Amino acid sequence: MASGRGSNAVNFMEYFGSHQRIEVALVVSNNPAAGVLDRAAEHGVGSRVLTAGDWGRKTEVLAFFADYAVDAIVLAGYMRLIPEWLIKKFPNRIFNIHPALLPDFGGKGMYGIHVHRAVIQSGVKRTGITIHLVNERYDEGPVLFQESIPVYPEDTPESLAVRVQRLEHLYYPRVVEEQLLGERGSKNEE
User: Fold this and answer.
1) How far apart are the first and last CA of the chain?
2) Helices 7-15 & 35-42 angle (0-180, nearest 10)
3) 98 given a catalytic annotation
4) Which one of the listed residues 98, 116, 132, 169 is annotated catalytic?
5) pLDDT recorded at residue 188
6) DSSP-assigned letters across all residues of 52-86
7) Which residues on neighbouring strands pair with residue 98, listed in sequence order?
8) Can you name the residues that pair with 29 across neighbouring β-strands?
């Protein structure tokens, strides 16, 4: 699920493109103009826009996910709070990545360049990524993985975003894969 251009979603489509046990079956966006929808089409992955009003039709949304045999959800820059009923339908199977070391710099409004700006303004020496399970609150689910990098004095929010995104692309699909299959079932060992 993504709201923007979808670099993490594309990374998942490429990482799992020839995987024997995991596939990206569907891309969902709340934004009908999201670039991720075009990227899904380029990768032969189905897509659907679910607006705020669509989430009010629980039975229809669940049936739609069932049609695609969805058994886990990965948030890749999805800018809406996930409904509690969806979290209950996929317990410990909804993953998110945050571009900072939670619990710092998390919560509503802390996304993208806003996070990197706050990190630099705070003067912290390290930042990174947090991969976590989703719960009913922004960025408060159980942490699965964190990796950090230094914040350099010359960093700008934009330069920091580039370096943090490299971590996202390197680790996010691997951590999700390990969670779904267990450590021994990862792509690197098959």
Assistant:
1) 27
2) 20
3) yes
4) 98
5) 44
6) TTGGG-HHHHHHHHHHTT---EE-SS--SPPPHHH
7) 130
8) 49
> Each residue of 29-39: pLDDT tens digit?
999 999 999 99
Instruction: Please tell me what DSSP assigns to residue 185.
Output: G
Threshold 0.90, pTM exceeds: yes
CATH superfamily membership of 7-189: Formyl transferase, N-terminal domain (3.40.50.170)
Residues 6+ apart with CB under 8 A from 99: 111, 112, 115, 116, 127, 129, 161, 164, 165, 168
- Residue (of 94, 106, 135) closest to 1 by Cα position: 94
Contact 121, 147 (CB under 8 A): no
Domain residue limits, the chain: 7-189
Cα–Cα distance measured from residue 147 to residue 137, given in angstroms and rounded to the nearest whole number:
22
- At 130 the three-state DSSP class reads strand
